């Protein structure tokens, strides 16, 4: 028989063992999710859908209360341990689907997603799109578009960032306090934060790939023409370049005056208008801009004694800083498919060719008629637009906005020393194509934004089918291979049956991304050749000063 003391000691030992197990478990949870950065201590939390840690809502900059339309300020040191668990922080905007105002100016945050493995990891920083007025990377009304889970399986760190949009991000004025491109400067501060702090999360500071979609891709490309290129080791440009017709505008002091008038103050004094708008709520300002159908873009800034500017010249006449960089760029098969939704009456009342050309070219009557006639004849001949010819309109709008600018970009990258440039066209079509689903489009192939559901997990579509999962595995493998090795297809495999060849000065190779992948050359050659000739012919008429034209009319 054992003594009473023996049983007591045994119970104590058992209790101690349980306590140690609990402590080990709890400590493991906290130690694995707690990091010390230059900014301070940050605690994340373990994901419930995979073996990775989420750090949500880390502040990287703050907006000045005295000048909310001006440049942001790096966020100060964190006090105590920052609990990174908020993924619902959104910059001010009117939501595209609900048409509700949402957001706060305290939105300059980023999210970091880190797989459990301890090796140093390549870093991928994503910049969302949204025509410089919309978009978020967290959750809004239980909806999310940029879930990280697909990337986490490939052992890379994913960073998603928020930046100011609309009037707070892209007022472009003849004023050193609001010179323009505030949203892009926000992005630069986020990239600086990543460069300075990502090593604390296990990231390799010499392997930072910045990728974006649409407006986010345009921002990424524009940064390659600025001093901020040093924060980008590699780039992936998805459906947007610095050469698109509607990317860069010029200073326009009238916009704050127009919004002020709409809100009750009529003035021609810019300072008075800005002071008035600062006194109004962000909701008032953002909703007013939306109701007035005002759009915002990056701009070519003026130089001031106190501010030298971020973007001072059009990329058409400058060189990108891409020496020794590797770049992926591409687009979908029918980027501007949205025009198919328009009734025939729309095309009878609106000259789509003239409207889009007028944005970039300042024609006199004679030259304008000649130019429009040449474009119209190339795409639809002498026929009036009908249901069948709408597809030709899709080709035209896609070419001038996405396809031809991508070719100009590729050529510039090669001419200016880029080490490798990979070109793709995304052709896969299913019920999981994101934007076709959101916009209720059932005809045609892939449109603008359709590839995103095969990179990021979203609850806006049904679960991926077996073919969908092949495309998802293929795209995330190529994107993360590029981030890790600088080559999207270092080896052939079951999921990567084709080696993706880069372009060269003599060969414009491209990868067709679909279930049946294949390499091709000289995509849309006849159309690209046409635009080469067109721009050369009408170069003297290109607008030196761009002003707003609503390309989505």
From TrEMBL:
Keywords: Disulfide bond, Glycoprotein, Hydrolase, Membrane, Serine esterase, Transmembrane, Transmembrane helix. Residues 33-531 form the Carboxylesterase type B domain. It comes from the Eukaryota. The keyword Transport does not apply. The chain crosses the membrane at residues 6-31. It holds the Pfam family COesterase. GO terms for molecular function: carboxylic ester hydrolase activity. It is an enzyme of class 3 (hydrolase). PROSITE patterns: CARBOXYLESTERASE_B_1. Its EC number is 3.1.1.-. InterPro entries: AB_hydrolase_fold, CarbesteraseB, Carboxylesterase_B_AS, Type-B_Carboxylest/Lipase. The keyword Membrane applies. Belongs to the type-B carboxylesterase/lipase family. This is Carboxylic ester hydrolase. It comes from Pieris brassicae (White butterfly). The lineage of its organism: Eukaryota, Metazoa, Ecdysozoa, Arthropoda, Hexapoda.
């Amino acid at each position: 028989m054992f003594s009473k003391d023996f049983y007591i000691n045994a119970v104590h030992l058992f209790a101690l063992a349980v306590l140690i197990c609990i402590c080990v478990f709890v400590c493991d949870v906290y130690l694995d999710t707690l990091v010390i950065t230059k900014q301070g201590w940050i605690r994340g939390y373990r994901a419930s859908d995979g073996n990775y840690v989420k750090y949500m809502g880390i502040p990287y900059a703050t907006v000045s209360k005295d000048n909310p339309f001006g440049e942001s300020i790096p966020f100060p040191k964190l006090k105590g341990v920052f609990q990174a668990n908020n993924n619902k922080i959104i910059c001010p905007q009117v939501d595209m689907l609900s048409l509700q105002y949402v957001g706060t100016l305290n939105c300059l945050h980023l999210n970091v997603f880190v797989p459990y493995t301890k090796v140093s990891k390549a870093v991928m920083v994503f910049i969302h799109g949204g025509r410089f007025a919309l978009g978020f990377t967290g959750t809004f009304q239980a909806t999310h578009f940029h879930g990280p889970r697909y990337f986490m399986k490939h052992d890379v760190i994913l960073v998603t960032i928020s930046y100011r949009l609309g009037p707070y991000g892209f007022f472009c004025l003849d004023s050193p306090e609001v010179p323009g491109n505030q949203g892009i400067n926000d992005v630069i501060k986020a990239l600086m934060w990543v460069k300075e702090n990502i090593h604390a999360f296990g990231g390799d500071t010499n392997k930072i790939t910045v990728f974006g979609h649409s407006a986010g891709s345009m921002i990424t490309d524009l940064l390659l023409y600025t001093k901020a290129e040093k924060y980008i080791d590699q780039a992936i440009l998805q459906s947007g370049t610095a050469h698109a017709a509607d990317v860069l505008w010029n200073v326009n002091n009238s916009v704050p005056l127009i919004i002020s008038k709409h809100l009750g103050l009529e003035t021609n004094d810019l300072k008075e208008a800005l002071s008035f708008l600062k006194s109004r709520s962000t909701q008032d300002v953002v909703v007013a801009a939306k109701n007035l159908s005002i759009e915002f873009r990056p701009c070519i800034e003026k130089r001031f004694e106190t501010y030298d500017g971020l973007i001072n010249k059009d990329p058409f006449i400058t060189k990108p800083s891409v020496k020794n960089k590797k770049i992926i760029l591409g687009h979908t098969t029918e980027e501007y498919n949205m025009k198919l939704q328009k009734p025939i009456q729309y095309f009878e009342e609106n000259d789509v060719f003239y409207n889009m050309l007028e944005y970039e070219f300042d024609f006199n009557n004679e030259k304008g008629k000649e130019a429009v006639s040449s474009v119209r004849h190339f795409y639809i001949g002498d026929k009036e637009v009908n249901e069948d010819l709408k597809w030709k309109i899709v080709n035209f709008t896609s070419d001038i906005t996405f396809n031809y600018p991508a070719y100009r970009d590729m050529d510039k990258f090669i001419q200016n020393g880029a080490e490798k440039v990979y070109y793709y066209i995304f052709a896969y079509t299913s019920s999981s194509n994101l934007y076709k689903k959101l916009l209720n489009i059932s005809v045609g192939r892939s449109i603008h934004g359709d590839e995103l559901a095969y990179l990021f997990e979203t609850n806006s579509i049904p679960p991926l089918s077996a073919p969908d999962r092949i495309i998802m595995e293929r795209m995330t493998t190529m994107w993360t291979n590029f981030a890790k090795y600088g080559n999207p297809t270092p080896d052939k495999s079951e999921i990567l049956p084709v080696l993706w060849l880069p372009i060269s000065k003599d060969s414009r190779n491209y990868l067709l991304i679909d279930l049946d992948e294949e390499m091709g050359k000289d995509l849309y050659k006849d159309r690209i050749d046409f635009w080469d000739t067109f721009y050369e012919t009408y170069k003297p008429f290109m607008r030196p000063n761009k002003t707003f034209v609503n390309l989505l009319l």
